Amino acid sequence: MLDTRQRTPRFVHGLPAAAASARHDSRDELRRSLRATPPTIAPKFLYDTRGCALYEAIVELPEYYLPRVERSILDQHQKAMLQALPQGAELIDIGSGDGLKARRWLDAGIVRRYIGLDIAEDWLRDCLRRGQQRYPELQFDGVVTDLSWGLQVPLAREGDRPRIFWYPGSSIGNFEPAGAIALLRQIRQQMRPGDALVLGVDGPAEPARMVRAYDDAAGVTAAFDLNVLNVVNRALGADFDAAGFRHRAVFNRHASRIEMHLVAHQRQSVDLGQGAALSLQPGEFIVTEHSYKHTPQRAEQLLHEAGFDQVRRFGIDGEAYGVYLARIGHVRH
Ligand SMILES: C[S@@+](CC[C@H](N)C(=O)[O-])C[C@H]1O[C@@H](n2cnc3c(N)ncnc32)[C@H](O)[C@@H]1O
User: Fold this and answer.
1) Which of 158, 253, 261, 308 has a CA that sits 20 to 30 A from residue 290's CA?
2) Cβ < 6 A, ligand 1 pocket
3) Contacts of 287 by beta carbon, 8 Å cutoff, 6+ apart
4) Closest ligand 1 atom, residue 118 Cα
């Protein structure tokens, strides 16, 4: 029988890890990381309202090949993946953003409930509202959370449904390898036999192609990167002048990662609030993102180290990008 009830998205907040909750303040975290060597701003701060809008423009750029390659892989292998994925599932969209990529699974009819997880609250609310309108028969829920606190899904399974953890876009590459393994392990710990993780991971390509993907000709990625200084100014009452910096993307071959830098092109002395300051000489830089490029062997190793015992890679000829379908045969904590 058709379910005609009007559904409204439910919305909850994750919490910093219990032990740290009393002390946790993202402003202290920011100040500390800006005074580290090299000064660093974690990529999670890139996603204020303007940052989210700029990211939506980045995924359309001709140079940013990742979403196109991922889409081709999914188009080519969707049938095989659907045979391996559970039906009637809850889809947990990790770092959901606009949630558009999840629609292929909703359209395929295997999902009964969508749960978006994201640090960007307004973007998440918008994603849930639009999803609920488009798929009124499904339940849309969201968790505003910071993945660096650990994977938090404080919403019980409805009717013991299987879960699909969906982590596309190679966002796992923003974590240092130990952090990536820790996050994958937390996903695995929340899984039961029959659940699945579908993970997009970019691999190393020709360096010039990768650099262009993170430093496009139209300057959209540069604007996205420089905007983080406005986020820091608002959060800390700091006085960064974005005009004193330029965006740069470099491939660090040794670490197999793209690094985004904001390079000072003049001497800077920045007030970070609460008596803290940052001094930069011309040419010194702030790190704003690492995007690890994991070979297929390395990606599979990360999944195995996190405890996944069933891993299948889907790819297309000529691309190192992989979509990995990982499952567990038994529960292991
Ligand atoms: C690169 S975008 C990917 C968006 C979408 N999944 C896609 O593939 O197009 C990364 C997403 O993760 C979110 N994000 C970044 N760091 C996060 C963190 N520490 N905790 C939770 N969400 C985070 C951002 O707000 C953004 O929505």
Assistant:
1) 308
2) 43-44, 47, 55, 59, 95-97, 101, 118-120, 145-148, 168-169, 171
3) 38, 39, 40, 41, 259, 260, 261
4) 22
For 64-205+297-327, CATH gives 3.40.50.150
Which of 48, 98, 119, 260 is the pocket-test mutation for ligand 1 (most atoms within 8 Å of CB)? 119
Q: What is the pLDDT of residues 119-154, one digit of tens each?
A: 999 999 999 999 999 999 999 999 999 999 899 899
Give the residue-averaged pLDDT of 225-229. Answer: 98
Burial state string for 53-82 with b = 16 or more CB within 10 A and e = fewer than 16: ebbeebeebebbbbbebbeebbeebeeebe
pLDDT digits (tens, 9 = 90+) for 281-295: 999 999 999 999 999
Q: Is the peptide bond before 136 cis (omega within 30 degrees of 0)?
A: no
Contact 144, 121 (CB under 8 A): yes
The mean predicted confidence, pLDDT, of the chain is: 94
User: Which of 47, 127, 145, 170 has most ligand 1 atoms within 8 Å of CB, for mutation?
Assistant: 47
- The model's pTM is 0.95
Task: Name the residue with the closest Cα to ligand 1, atom 1.
Answer: 171
